[in-house]
Amino acid sequence: MTAMLESYAAGRWFRSEAEGEPLLDAATGEEVARISAAGLDLAGMVDHARDVGGPAIRDLTFHERAQLLKELAAHLSADKDEIYALSARTGATRRDSLVDVDGGFGTLFSYASKGRRELPADTVVLDGPTEPLGRAGTFVGQHLYVSRPGVAVQINAFNFPVWGMLEKLAPAFLAGMPSIVKPASQTAYLTELVVRRIVESGILPEGSLQLLCGSATTLLDHLGPMDSVAFTGSAHTAGILRDHPNVLHAGVRLGVEADSLNCSILGPDVTPDDPELELFVKALVAEMTVKAGQKCTAIRRAIVPESLVDTVVGLTAERLARVVVGDPRNPDVRMGALASLAQRDEVRKAVEALRASADLVVGDPDHVELVDADAERGAFLAPLLLRAHAGAVEPHEVEPFGPVSTVLTYATLEEAVALAARGSGSLVGSVVTHDPEVARRVVLGLAPWHGRILVLDRDDAGESTGHGSPLPVLVHGGPGRAGGGEELGGIRGVLRHMQRTAIQASPDLMTAITGRWTTGARRRVEAVHPFRKSLAELRIGDSIESPSRTVTLEDIAHFADFTGDTFYAHTDEEAARANPLFGGIVAHGYLVVSLAAGLFVEPNPGPVLANFGVDSLRFLTPVKAGDAISVRLTVKQITPRTNADYGEVRWDAVVSNAAGDPVATYDVLTLVAKRWPPVEG
Ligand code: NDP
C-alpha cells in the first residue's frame, strides 16, 4: 500500500490512521498515494488560521507580504523537477505542467510585484478621494479597505493542483487572510508536495497556509461572518455549498467558479484566405488538447458562419489527426490522460448526451491510438469534435470536461451573439475577427455574459496569451452558470478579500486613521525646510508656506517664447479677450506649476533625490498678469521602498492667488533618502 497523504494542520503534519481512498496514476493506473481526512481536527485548523496565521500576516505591511510572495515564488521556481515528475502522474504532459506549475509560480510573482507597486506600505488601502461632508471642512468621509480577521478556505478542482492553489493563495495572503487549502482528492498528492516545499521553506508565517487532504464536507460548519470560501469545481457541489446554513445565514462569503460552456466565434468577415481562419482553428485545437481539455476555460462551443463550417471542420480534423496521445512523460506526446477513469466515463456520458443534437465528426470515444500507454489502465480519450444540428440544445447545457468541442453555425452576427449567450454565463469567450465593427458588436454583445473576452486577429496573435489562459492581472470568473465569482484581476482580487468601510471624521482624526494627510488637517510649518529632512525625519503634515510672487506679462511672454507654447490665450490679447473662459491673456498652467516649484524648492544638495511626477493636476482659476501666487506644500504620504535606501514622498500642493482662491492643485511625487547624510559603506 502506498503512503497516506498528510494534511498540514495547526503547525504540524497530520496523517490519518484510516485506510483511505487510493489515488491512481492517470496514465498507468498505478496507485500513487492514499487519502483520508478521518481524525483531522477541522475546527482546530480554523482556530489556528484565525488565532495564529491571521494576526501574523496582518502584522506585516502589504509590501512585506508582497516581498514574502516573491521569495516564495523564487524558492519554488528554483527546483521544479520533482514537481514536474509528479505532475506527469496526473496525466499532464510537460506543456500541461507548464500551465499548472509555472502558471502558478508566475501568479505569485505577478501578485508580489503588483502588491509592491500598487498597494501602500501600510495595512489599510484607501479607496477613492476624501469626500467633504460639511461646508466648513471639519467633517470628511473616506472609504478604506481593511483585512478581515477570518480564514480564506479554498476548495479546488482536480485539474490545476498547483495553479489552483497559488492563484487563490496569493491575493488572500496579500489581503491579510490565512488560507486553508483543500485540493480535489484525485490530484491532491501534487498540491501536498508543493505545500510541503512551502512549509519547509519557512517563508510564510506559521498559520498562513494549512492543507486539508481528504473530505471537506464539514469544514463550512466551522466558518462564520469574517470567513470566505472560494470554490472551483462542479455546479453540483457549488449548489451544496450555496445551501450551507453558514452561507445562507451566518454571512460566510462564497465565491464560485463552476461549469462554463465557453465559446469562440469566428467573425463573418473572415474568408478562407485570411490568417484569422487558421488562428481560429489553431486556438480551438489547443483548447481541446491542452490538459486534455480539462480546463474550465476551454472552448466547448465553436460558433462559425454557415458558409465556413465545412472548411473549419476539415482544418480542425487535419490538425487533430496530428495530435499524438499517450504517456505524458514521452516528449513526442501532445495530449496526456484525463485525471481518472471515472472522469473519462463522465466525459463519455457527456458526449453521448451531446450526440442527441450533434454528429460526431472527428474521433471515436471508445478508441484512441496511443503511444507508450495502455488504454485500459490509463484514462485516455481521443479528441472529439461534434457538429451541432440546427436548433441543438445540449451543446449549451452539457459540459464535457475533456478534449471535446462542438461546432455550431450562425447566419447573422445577432444569432452568433445569441448562441453565445445560451451558455447562460461563461468564464471566457473569444472572437476571431479583423473587422473593427464586428469586434465591437460581438464584444459588447458578449460582455454581459462573460468574465473575459479575447479578440484575436493577425495583429495580436503573436503576443496573444490564448483563449484559455487566465492571467493574474485580469479578472477570472464569470456570471450566471460560470458561478458568478471573480478571482484575480490584479489588486481587485486582493480587495475582494477585504472589507470596505466608509469612515466619517474630522480631517485630523482621518489623517491619524488613514496615515495619509487629509485636506483641512493640521499642518506643521517649522524653521527647517522639509526638503532638508530625510525619510526618517519627515512627518505627515510637515509643510511649507511659500512667499508670494507676482506673475507679469513679461513672464508669460517669456515662457511662450522659450517653450514655443504660443497658444493665443497667452500671446494674443484680442483673441484671448474673446475667449469666454479667460477674457484676456492668462498664464500657462505649466508656467504656474513651474513658478510654484521655484517657490517651494530648497535648492541645495539634500535628501530629496528626484521628482518623479505629479498626480491629479488641475488648473482651477486662471492666473492673469499682475496676480500674485503662493504655494502650500504638505507631506501627504510617506512610502519607504523595500530593498532601497530611499522612499516615496507624496506632497499635497495647493497654489493660490492673492484672494486665496486655489489656482492649481496636485500631488508632487518625490524620492527621498531614508537617511541624510547617507551612511557611508
Ligand atoms: P467537484 O465539485 O466534485 O469537486 C471540486 C472540489 O470540491 C474538490 O476539492 C472536492 O473534493 C470538493 N468537494 C466535493 N464535495 C464537497 C462538499 N460537499 N463540501 C466541500 N467540498 C466538496 O468537482 P470535480 O473536481 O470532481 O469535477 C467534477 C466536474 O466539475 C468536472 O467533470 C467538470 O464538469 C466540473 N468542473 C468544472 C470546472 C470549472 O471551473 N468549470 C473545474 C473543475 C471541474 P474531493 O475531490 O475530495 O471530492
UniProtKB/TrEMBL annotation:
<feature type="domain" description="Aldehyde dehydrogenase">
    <location>
        <begin position="14"/>
        <end position="443"/>
    </location>
</feature>
<dbReference type="InterPro" id="IPR016162">
    <property type="entry name" value="Ald_DH_N"/>
</dbReference>
<dbReference type="GO" id="GO:0016620">
    <property type="term" value="F:oxidoreductase activity, acting on the aldehyde or oxo group of donors, NAD or NADP as acceptor"/>
</dbReference>
<dbReference type="Pfam" id="PF00171">
    <property type="entry name" value="Aldedh"/>
</dbReference>
<dbReference type="InterPro" id="IPR011966">
    <property type="entry name" value="PaaN-DH"/>
</dbReference>
<dbReference type="InterPro" id="IPR016161">
    <property type="entry name" value="Ald_DH/histidinol_DH"/>
</dbReference>
<keyword id="KW-0560">Oxidoreductase</keyword>
<dbReference type="InterPro" id="IPR029069">
    <property type="entry name" value="HotDog_dom_sf"/>
</dbReference>
<protein>
    <submittedName>
        <fullName>Fused aldehyde dehydrogenase enoyl-CoA hydratase</fullName>
    </submittedName>
</protein>
<dbReference type="InterPro" id="IPR002539">
    <property type="entry name" value="MaoC-like_dom"/>
</dbReference>
<dbReference type="InterPro" id="IPR015590">
    <property type="entry name" value="Aldehyde_DH_dom"/>
</dbReference>
<dbReference type="Pfam" id="PF01575">
    <property type="entry name" value="MaoC_dehydratas"/>
</dbReference>
<comment type="similarity">
    <text>Belongs to the enoyl-CoA hydratase/isomerase family.</text>
</comment>
<dbReference type="InterPro" id="IPR016163">
    <property type="entry name" value="Ald_DH_C"/>
</dbReference>
<feature type="domain" description="MaoC-like">
    <location>
        <begin position="540"/>
        <end position="650"/>
    </location>
</feature>
<comment type="similarity">
    <text>Belongs to the aldehyde dehydrogenase family.</text>
</comment>
